[in-house]
Amino acid sequence: MSDGLWTALALLLVLEGVLPFVAPATWRRIFSQMLQMQDGQIRFCGLVCLMVGGVLLWWLG
């Protein structure tokens, strides 16, 4: 894999770890709320994240 891909993966892990480190109670509440969501709602959130990420990659590239 390229260095850029490893850098992106490392940045993803750093960003994913910020909320549980800074506010674990908030992270736990958000996670429990996500467990109550329907599959379609979770898929829609995933689709929005994919689209925003794709647009950002296109815009920055």
Largest sheet, strands/sense/barrel:
none
**N-to-C SSE string, H for helix and E for strand:** HHH
| Protein structure class | mainly alpha
User: What does the overall shape look like?
Assistant: flat
What amount of the residues lies in strands?
under 5%
Span of the ends, CA to CA: 18 Å
Unreliable stretches covering 5 or more consecutive residues: none
The number of strands is 0
**Helix percent band:** over 70%
Mean pLDDT: 92
Number of helices: 3
**Rg, Cα atoms, Å:** 14 Å
| Total domain units | 1
Summarize the topology.
Layout lengths: L2 H20 L1 H12 L3 H22 L1
Helix pairs in contact: 1-2
Describe the 3D structure:
The longest helix has 22 residues, at 39-60. The chain contains 3 helices and no strands. The chain starts with a helix and ends with a helix. It has one domain. It is mostly helical. The chain is flat. Helices cover 89% and strands 0% of the residues. The protein has helices at 3-22, 24-35, 39-60. The model has no long low-confidence stretch (mean pLDDT 92).
